[in-house]
Design brief:
Belongs to the PspA/Vipp/IM30 family. It contains five helices and no strands. α2 runs antiparallel to α3. About 6% of the residues have low confidence. By secondary structure, it is mostly helical.
Length: 258
C-alpha cells in the first residue's frame, strides 16, 4: 500500500469522524425533508414539461391527421370531377401529412409512457415525503427525549459527587448534632430540676421537724405525739430527774428517726 493511499484513508477517516460527531439528528432530518421537497419541485417541473410536450405533440398529430383526411377528401373530389392530376397532387399531400402524423404518433406514445412514469414517481415521492415528515416528528421527539434523559442522568451524577450535595450532607450532620445536643441539654435540665425539687421537699421535712422541736422545747415536756403532758403532783428530786431523763431519751429517739 502506497504512502499516499494511507494518508488519504487517514484523512477520510478523520473527516468522517468529524462529520459523524457534528451530525445533529434533528437538523439532519429537517435538511433531508428540505432536500426531498426540492426533488419533488424538480420532479413536478419535469412532469409539467413532459405533459406540455405531450400536448404539443398531440396537437401536431391531430393537425397532420386532419390535413391527411382533408387531402384524401380533395383527392376523391378531384377524381370524381375527372381531374386525375389534381387528385394525384392531393394524394401526395395526403401522404406527407399521414407520414408526419405517423411519426408524431410514435413520439406521442413514447411521451405518454414517459409522462405516466413521471406521474407515478411523483405520487410515490409525495407519499415518501409525507411518510418521512411523520417519521421525522417521531424521531425528533425520541431524540429530544434521549437528550433530556442524558442531561438528567448527568445532572444526577454530578449531584452525587458534587460540592452542592456534599454541602447538604454536611448540613444534615450538623443538624443531627444540634438535635443531639438539644436533647442532652433538655435531659440535664430535667435532672437538675428533679434534684432541686427533691432538696426542697427534704428541706421542708427538716424545717417542719425543727419547728415542732422548737415548739416542744418552748412548751416544756411533751408526749411522743407532741401533746402537753398532764400536770403531776410534786414528787421528790429523783422522780423529777427521771422524768427529764425520759424526755431526753424521747428527744434523742425523735432526732434519730429524722
Amino acid at each position: 500500500m502506497g504512502l499516499f493511499d494511507r494518508i488519504s484513508r487517514v484523512v477520510r477517516a478523520n473527516l468522517n469522524d468529524v462529520v459523524s460527531k457534528a451530525e445533529d439528528p434533528e437538523k439532519i432530518l429537517e435538511q433531508s425533508i428540505i432536500d426531498m421537497q426540492e426533488d419533488l419541485v424538480q420532479l413536478r417541473q419535469a412532469v409539467a414539461r413532459s405533459i406540455a410536450g405531450q400536448k404539443r405533440t398531440q396537437q401536431q398529430y391531430n393537425q397532420n391527421q386532419t390535413e391527411a383526411n382533408n387531402w384524401d377528401s380533395r383527392a376523391r373530389l378531384a377524381l370524381s370531377k375527372g381531374d386525375e392530376n389534381l387528385a394525384r397532387e392531393a394524394l401526395g399531400r395526403k401522404k406527407t401529412h399521414a407520414e408526419t402524423a405517423a411519426t408524431l404518433k410514435t413520439s406521442l406514445d413514447q411521451q405518454t409512457t414517459q409522462v405516466d412514469a413521471l406521474k407515478r414517481n411523483l405520487i410515490a415521492l409525495e407519499s415518501k415525503i409525507s411518510e418521512a415528515k411523520t417519521k421525522k416528528d417521531m424521531l425528533k421527539a425520541r431524540a429530544q427525549a434521549a437528550k433530556a434523559n442524558e442531561q438528567l442522568q448527568n445532572t444526577v451524577g454530578r449531584l452525587g459527587t458534587g460540592s452542592a450535595m456534599g454541602a447538604f450532607e454536611r448540613m444534615e450532620e450538623k443538624v443531627m448534632e444540634l438535635e443531639a445536643r438539644s436533647t442532652a441539654a433538655q435531659e440535664l435540665t430535667g435532672n437538675a430540676l428533679e434534684e432541686q425539687f427533691a432538696m426542697l421537699e427534704s428541706g421542708n421535712d427538716v424545717d417542719d421537724e425543727l419547728a415542732a422541736l422548737k415548739a416542744q422545747m418552748s412548751l416544756g415536756p411533751a408526749t411522743a405525739s407532741g401533746g402537753a403532758l398532764p400536770a403531776a403532783k410534786p414528787t421528790s428530786t429523783s422522780s423529777s430527774n427521771a422524768a427529764v431523763d425520759n424526755e431526753l431519751e424521747d428527744l434523742k429517739k425523735q432526732l434519730d428517726n429524722l
